[in-house]
Amino acid sequence: MPRNRTRKGFTLIELLIVVVIIGILAAIAIPKFAETKEKAYISSMKSDLKNIATSAEAWFSDNNTYVGFTPGPASNDGLPITFTPDGAAGWTATATHPGAPGWTCTNAAGSTVAAGAPDGEVVCTE
Question: Quick one: pLDDT at residue 12?
Answer without folding.
Answer: 92
